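Cross-check.
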Amino acid sequence: MRILLALLLALAAPPAFAHKPSDSYLAVRVEGASVSGQWDIALRDLDFAIGLDDNGDGDVTWGEVKAHHTDIAAYALARLKLRSGGTDCSARATEFLVEDHSDGAYSVMRFAAGCPTEITTLEIGYSLFADLDPQHKGLLRLEQRAATRTAIFSPERATQSFELAKISALTQFFDYGREGVWHIWIGFDHILFLLSLLLPAVLAFDGARWRPVARFPPAFWDVFKIVTSFTVAHSITLSIAALGVISLPSRLVESGIAISVVLAALNNVFPVVHERRWLVAFVFGLIHGFGFASVLRDLGLPQGALLVALVGFNLGVEIGQLAIVSAFLPAAYWLRASWFYQRLVFVAGSLAIAAIAAIWLVERAYNLKIISA
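Predicted model, tokenized:
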């Protein structure tokens, strides 16, 4: 019961985020003793930190961003430390742009830095928004020649060191695998969709109502088919979208994901599909794959190791999913016959998930902000 309660409480907080918590994207390229980079920071986060909306109309324009370029550079670069050989490499802003990511508009700051000698080990210190948002993460893509590494900065891992000579295909595989685990755990819409399909796994519909299953194996195999179908489906669209074969508008994809969560959750309360739910997982999994692909595109794919990065990221997503299933299924099976599970977790939980996803749908379809983060 404690495990199940912990999962439910952990998922009670996400409604503040239509897709994911605050992230920034830091791309760094090393050539000899020089560093060049690009830092994508969400305008909503910068507005909160230093104030960009000068006229207070709730809409940050390009003119307002342009007027604050100096402030953005001073604020951001004061929170980025580059060191090589024990010496600081001072960075300066070189260009400013604005770009759309999957979750909104970002300020794009390009910068350059020089170090005294050729860089073999680069130490990066990252403290952006550390005093304002303890959940903020910095997603790093570090490139040297054809090799790419990734890392996640957080208050717990604010300073990291990278030995450039040790960047290999295996290193990239594990880096992108870690990213996959992280992004399924913060992809609350994906988690709620999966949970909506898992909630009935320990129950059986007899034509009138859901009843607890008599044995564990049927529940296990039901979950196995659902997770496998979801995995196969999103792996297909993740790959073709990340490689640029098919590209769909972000608003359409994110709205489709929200619809899938609403329908899957309501189906638990008003059963329409109570057999072969693995087909539902497969169909909607195709849409979720485009959502995963947007994250991977934001992070960046190493041109010299596309397959390694794709496989690593996808396996990371699966490991993250299996961790959730492993925590959920035993607790759900144990509680399946109780009032707590059948009424509070299954019915009330499904209605709560549907309500949260309905808010996401309105936000994403009409580009609104109903719940402020």
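The longest strand covers residues 91-101. The CA atoms of residues 101 and 298 lie 7 Å apart. Passed to J.P. for a second look.
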